User: Fold this.
Amino acid sequence: MVTADAAETQDGLAPQPPNGDPNSPTSNSASKLLATRAIQSEMSTPEMGQEATIQEIATPEAIQETAVEKALREREANLLALIENTQDAVWSVDRQYRIVTLNSTFKRQFQTVYGVELKLGADIISCLPDSAKAIWIGYYSRALRGDRFAVELHFDFPGGPADIEVSFNPIITNTGEITGVAVFGRNITDRKRAEADLQQAKDQLQAVLDAVPGCISWFSSDCKYLGINRYLAATFNVRPEDFVGKELGFMESSPGFADFVRKFTVSPVKESSVEIAARVDGSIRNYIIVAQKYFQDQAAVFVGLDITDRMQVEEALRESQERYALAVRGANDGLWDWNLRTDAVYFSPRWKEMLGYEEGEIGNNLNEWFSRVHPDELYRVKAQLNAHLDGSTEHFESEYRILHRDGSYRWLLNRGLAVRDEKGKACRMAGSQTDITKRRQAEEQLLHDALHDTLTGLPNRALFVDRLSQAIERTRRPQGYQFAVLFLDVDRFKVVNDSLGHVVGDQMLVAIAQRLQTCLRIGDTIARLGGDEFTILMEDIRSHSDSSQLAERIHREFLSPFNLNGQEVFTTVSIGIALSESGAIAPKTCCEMQIPPCTAPKFWDGPATKYSMPLCTPALLRCCS
Assistant:
């Protein structure tokens, strides 16, 4: 804290803190306070006789002066609190460099940098290391000569390096005498870093713009050049700085471009594009111009891409494209034509129709295609496409799902072939797409039927054995993976089947399958092996108790009857549990596991005895096969 005694402020003392308003009441008051403190340090104590005389005289003027002094002391106390609590470093010295005022921020920073604890009245120069004394004497001396200035200094603090802006302000009395220096230190590290980041961003942006293989120019709203990139300057063999401030059209190379800029700057639209012609080195080149306004419509940027070569190639290929379109129209396929130089893609009306869109509802860019490809297959499709563009494959062919307008996915077969230039680089690629949704649905249905039970819809024996084989394979890895297999046999099912009929028996099997599915964890597999036999594969179990808990859940579910054609039917299931364990399995265990699961001790029927043993791969597969 600032510990110097309070004193009356003097008029006319006006040192300024850095970045402060010279007319600010707080700024002036703080500076006056520092000046007052400097004057106080040189004032002598009044003699006792004089003090007694003043105390004995109680005139109205003295009473009024006492009230003023009280107000001044209160004001000084407030200013001292303000100086003490500011985040800036604040201190002042007299003409002999003795410290008159300092706040805790400066005191802490000084001790951190120089290892010295400052005190009021100390010679601040003597507290500095020899290498810094001459520098600071120079700063103080300059301020004592009447200069008001600021310097940026770099310090290393424990929390990291910091840049400090130090402002030196002469303390001047109302008689013009300089009695000391008021100093303010502000941490500007964040500001400096922001300025550096901004400059770096500007440099990076300029580097990007200079690297763009297109003509880029900026115009103010009065159609004067604000700047251009290097590509445009090189195109017309003019230095970039020669454009700045020039009127639009001063080169007279493209009346069409000048007309477009003038109309765009006064129009309410924010962006626009146009194709224009320009004379470059005596020949006519074709450009596509894209315009975008910025800075609250007070400026605009124009990007021009040379499309002369593209137009020539397109014209040369137009006839072959028409012939190809006629050839595939009879096949009812959708066509696409991709110009790799401009990245523009043509999608035929049939291509769009296959996705549920009209002619004008899909644009001519590649994203219209890729954005609709199923996310699970997009990477593969792009890899296949790039492989052909790189020359790794003779043609492009891919089957994938694509999003239809109605929200469903359709299966498409897409084929394409690239056209290459004299260097072998692909410059154009065209192809067709065929809807193969019905074919894929038929294939998927056949695959599903081959791996699922037709009655219950559960995985069948073949699918269960495949997943079980994968689980067994995972137990050979060192991660401590475990699983369990539950064998379930429906008790008294033959009685229900014989007494109520096969239709009711089938209904009961479906109901049992549905009820068993409600007991499973996410990731478990339940399958119907045949008849009234079911199996459950519990993967990645934490302990053997997980399988017991599942068996208990199944038991609770079967306490409720099944409602079959208005009749309540009760049944139970016998459950056998086989557990996987790490390490070798003895041959004897394998032989024991060859018993069918239906012969295992019943878990919930009669006296419950849990059937549990280590899992032998060959035996378990024989049980399920």
Summary: The radius of gyration is 45 Å. Residues 285 and 321 are 25 Å apart (CA to CA). Residues 1-27, 41-57, 582-623 have pLDDT under 50 and may be disordered.
